[in-house]
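Notebook entry, structure prediction.
Reason for the run: the old model in the group folder had no record of what sequence produced it. Starting over properly, with the input documented here first.
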Amino acid sequence: MKKVMMILLAITLISACSNTTNNVQEEKEQKEHSGKEQVIKETSDEEEKQVGIPEYPKAAQRKIAGGKPDSISDFKPAPIQNENKATYNLDLTMDSDEKFTVTAEVKVENTSKDVWNEIVFYFIPNAFTEENKPESLEDAAEVSVSRIELDGEKADYLLNHDTLYLPLEEGFKPGDEKSVTVRYSFTAPQFGYRLSNNFNNIYLAEWYPMLATYHSGWRKEDYIASGESYFTDYSDFKVKYSLPEEYMVLSTADNDPAVPSKSGELESQNVKEFYMALTKNMEVVQQTAGDVEVRVAGVASADSLKQVLETSVKAVNYFSDKLSPYPHKQIDIIADEGGMEYPGIVTIGLLNGELKNEGRVSQYHALIHEIAHQWFYGIVNNDPYYDVFIDEGLTNFASYLFMIGHDKKTPEEVFQFAKDQEVKTTALAHLPLHEYLNGGFMGANYEIPSLKLWELTGGEQEAFDYLNKYVELYSYQEVDTAEWIRFTKSYFKLNEDQFFREWISYE
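New structure, fully documented this time:
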């Protein structure tokens, strides 16, 4: 308790020196300077107190090394090794007012060489409360943490925005394991952002405390709604749910019930996160793609849903053949909630009429794109805050290849949007996510990488040979920009870095 008591003593001294005017000014500054001031809750206290989170080690980015390429015939991959492991047991209960109560037990293993003085989680529901939510959202989530335990004992913690920080009284040694239990309640905001309640169809994205990755320091950045700012490693999940009435449950798990249910237990192994959707008013159509069950859910017409189903089956079969077998027994597609990928489940926007193949900005392309993410994100991991172009660029490229190889479109048709974006984009790839807030995100990370890879390959078969080798070497590993460049230089026998420096930041 020594560290926590020192923090609380500092709070008391600061408070004693404050008057009402200063408090008002401080509250104004806190809103304007979010991320600097943090919230501490000691579970024995009722009131929230303001305190800064202590400095903790942050992971550094690997430098991009130039030089000559290795021979691809004896190429040895050097992925980043994550240095912790999480196993999740989640118990989710929803009441008749659509409020959720959760007990999340996370077993955390320190696989690094460092002694930790803290454990760091993402807690993204808290990013959508009235105090923290993006201005674009009208409704807010309600979040209340009732108790946190460390190895069965009540623990102190710090909570601000989407960061949940547990200070440790004793060092967490390499090879040791600890159990963190978080008890909390939350609601999903109406028409929220991924975590959302849309006409009583409830979408639970990033709804539990997610252990941040550790690479000789914690990889944890502030939540940004315009991208994927959270970064998690492969984990095992057991999820128990209890609902006030029957819902169709669609999730990351392969053992989703085929009929509406009030309760159940779900499991998934070796996935980056666990997504759930609870639907009341959706039609569900399904078909197999080889031995994979493909399910499509939505509020659109039966004909529209069948079009989505037929296209999804074709995409799963195509990528399974060209890249590697689809990694799960089931894939769900939800046509209601905007384009986003999760392990074993994807979402696309609400369908209005037919699913038309009308190029890059169509729902058709979004569907192919999100399914391709099951390989570039689901099978090969990368940090989407710093290396977003790796999964988005390769996913977009694979989507374009589908349209060339499967749909028989010409490369000129397929890459026209990318060429238009290239002309307008001055931003480079491999910038931190927050540096794209002023523009350039789409061109730098989706379109230009696709064009550059087509420039290197020049054909569908040659392109898939490259992508197939990439997936083979890096399955269930993390690739950063430095390693992706090293592999690509070796594969294509590029002696210089000029090709990459034109569109990738080496800083």
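Summary: Residues 343 and 378 are 6 Å apart (CA to CA).
The old model has been moved to the deprecated folder.
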